[in-house]
Design goal:
DNA mismatch repair protein MutL; 6-stranded mixed beta sheet; 8-stranded mixed beta sheet; 26 strands; alpha+beta; ATP hydrolysis activity; formyl-coa transferase, domain 3
Amino acid sequence: MKITILPDTVINQIAAGEVVERPVNVVKELVENALDAGATRIELAVERGGIASMTIADNGSGMSRRDLMLAIERHATSKISKFEDLSGLNTMGFRGEALPSIASVSKLQITSCEPDSVAGNRLKVHGGRIIELQETAANIGTRVEVANLFYNVPARKKFLRTPQTEQNLITVLLHSFALAHPHIAFHYQIDGKSSFQFPPADQQQRIQQVFGRHNALNLRHGESRSPEVQISLFLSRPDHTRSRRDQLYFFVNRRHVKDRLLSSWLQQAYRHLIPHGRHPYGVAFLTIAPELVDVNVHPSKTEVRFLDIGLLSKHFHAALGQILTEQGGTESPPVSPSILTSPNRTYNHSKPAASGASTELVRQSVLNDSAPLALPIDTGGEGDFSPLQSVSEQSTGSESASLNFLPEDSREHFDILGQYAASFIVAVRNGELLIVDQHAAMERINYEEICARSTSEDTAMSSEPLLFPHPLPLTSAEVEVLKQHIPAVQALGFGVEFIDSSPCLTSAPFDLPSQQALDTITAVCRQVLDDKEKNMELPQESMRQMIIKSAACHKSVKAKKTLNHQQMEELLERLFTCSQPWTCPHGRPVALAWEREKLCQMFLR
């Protein structure tokens, strides 16, 4: 076959494959255009998840007749004029690919009017071909209507999901824009019905609008700043998590991004505080000097590259450290004015940020009674925001009768009332009713004792040889996992040898019975393999933590084990000497406490 030059319509349709994969991509590009046009109000209406139609209207600067024609040409943009402009980019868009890509795979109509014009102009483009351009009456700003997406590319249309799924993706996207731009009003309509209206607000009010009052109540704030980097985090308490990550937002210079590095930092910070498979929710705002971040990585503009990862890491972890304190992150109350106005809540690593910085770091309460409430986020049920407590939080008032993790001042005198279901210790401290999970409490005690005996990866724990080798009941895949982590296993006192190609346990930590040692190694290998199957990467240093957690679990007193008064008293005394007595190593609650007022509220008294 001979080489030929493709027609512009085909070129645009191919390019659209990178920019426009589904309706949510169209909405993203058009909302970014509205933001760059200086809009203070953006309205979005979708039909059938955007598959049938999407309409976005703004009150921005609008376009002239000439600019309207140029807007559908590839690589035509008002954002940059030379490559060097990318290093100081302060707009959302810059490629000049969005509108021509959208126009090539849909029936597009753009109506726009500049502030000083007596009339506007309307442009119709079907499948990349101009159908009509005429003068028309119009409001100041731009209105873009996209109908019949992929009508001329049926192969791509087949890959779209259900209208409900596409609609949910658009909803999450619009929430991200609303969080990043609280001063802008957003109105969202779905199939002719209003979904939400967010009036202009400050950052705290907008967070409450998007997440809802109850969920905002469980957010905590941490920040760190320097002239080059400013970090402001609003993240959920470890006892309020989700089964999915879809309500965790990262913003770099107000641009919503999906960054594996930031996600991994957050995941590792919460790893020992929340159960496996659960995730925090909240918002991370990063304001970085433009020359230190590259946003020109992919046409979707959701990926970025950081020039100074070390500087970013220092500030990000400093802000995280304020949220997840050394006591485990659950001893302090949720975000409140007293916390956020405390002089100790901000780390100033150097001089304050320049006055022209684009992000104003928030130092007030997330909660504000005057802030409008958002409608519930449709998450498909399974992924709803969820506290870890096992007792439902219900009350007749607007506030929940919540169960609280054991606060730091619990290390006081307590009276043991008894044991419930041979699994829970019931006690009273300072007028509060306290219920302690005996297995979780013993896990915490054992975990901290093992950690204290093995403070370094270079320090091997003492062990005792077994009378005879014990075969490890591992599959071939689990054996490969074990081989990869032999040094970490041996450093913690577990001796492993391969006898006739079969792995055997030859020694164990001196206080761990052989069967518990076998169960520990087997459970860890299976967990690592399970994580790999879920595409969850395991940092090398985490293997050590997994082994310690597993050992602590297997040597702990189990549920359904009857304890006498002396044993319960000894367990609680040992628990209250731990640095983190309120959560087990896997992040589950160890103790729950009710004040008398909360109990009365729960009983409608």
